[in-house]
Amino acid sequence: MVIHCHLQIxxxxxxxxxxxxxxxxxEVVDDIVAAFESETTRGFMIAALVLIPIFGSxxxxxxxxxxxxxxxxxxxxxxxxxxxxDNTIDILLSDNTGPxxxxxxxxxxxxxxxxxxxxxxxxxxxxxxxxxxKVIDNEIGRIFYQCGTVTPFTGTSTVxxxxxxxxxxxxxxTLSFATSSTNIxxxxxxxxxxxxxxxxxxxxxxx
Length: 207
Prior knowledge:
Layout: H1 2-37, H2 41-71, E1 77-85, E2 88-94, E3 100-108, E4 114-121, E5 133-137, E6 142-153, E7 158-167, E8 171-177, E9 183-186, E10 195-199, E11 201-205
Parallel strand pairs: 1-10
Antiparallel strand pairs: 1-2, 2-7, 3-6, 3-8, 3-9, 4-7, 5-6, 8-11
């Protein structure tokens, strides 16, 4: 997914910056150790004066990071499939707790029970220009799409997409999400997967 890739690149760049910063700190520590080993009053004072602000700032930074995680916990969201009528199935988001901006969804169905003629992706989480993939496969019973938005969705619930279907047989069949390829991503700069539950559904016709 292109949006997810961009987020991963940003995360990788940040990690490179952090690694470079840690490497620089280690060089400073080595110099300080050398000053300590000089066994002179001047060396001791220089080392103490440098060490105190460095480790103090590192401690303060750690406190800030932990405080931020406590005050702004990662959002979570559920995704579920639900039959609305004999000819429509909705893919729903529910219990969302924070800003989200991308999704990939794979829903599997029994092609002997239903035929999917169309997939309408709602704009709340998926701008049309950022619909990366959209697949309907009635041979194996699978729909799959990937999408995103510049403006994050912050509501509690919404219809993510609607399937137009034709019933082919009487009875009940399962609508199931593929766990590894059904994910909702947070608007956090990292593309964090915040999917809490993938709630499968049922499609029933004439029963």
